[in-house]
Amino acid sequence: MKCQYCEKPATFHITELTEPSGPKVMHLCEEHARSFLQKEASSPVASVAGALAKQLQLGQTKKEIEELDQKECPVCGISFFEFRSSGRLGCPYDYTFFESDLIPLLNNIHDSTEHVGKRPRRLAASADSQARMIQLRREMEEAVDLEDYERASEIRDELKRMEEELNKPADQKTDHEDEDACNADSSKRGKQS
Description:
The chain has eight helices and two strands; from the N terminus they run ββαααααααα. The protein is mainly alpha-helical. Strands 1-2 form a two-stranded antiparallel ribbon. Strand 1 and strand 2 form a beta hairpin.
């Protein structure tokens, strides 16, 4: 389908529901869609168009989006296209690797890049250690596929050591927090009676 205003292919199909006579369907190329969505007027169409323009991030061309979709995380192998399709990242390192691409998206969705609200009691492993563990698991799978069982067992042992180091302090901290919570509850009950 071609753009209503020129011979370029229509990549945006916009349906306006503001006309009393019924919906108005527009088929526009990227250039004409950008000019339509960036119109500054006081009509409700302009505010909806402005929100749509913000959502679609029209600053990126089709080529830029295609290049971005090919970008792959070196740790887990997820591509930006897979992230856009599923809405989920593959590993903690993805936040670092795709940071420059995720910041505009986070700003658009949450109007901020900082978390405000509850946080887990137990601190998770750092992104670096989690990324290292994912990479080791991948290497272990490759070693098994190549029937290098000695290397696979070395990697397995290293993974166990890393997991023990991560879990040991966290488990001790959780136990103490649980004891503190129980003591606080019993002292509150004692004061109330």
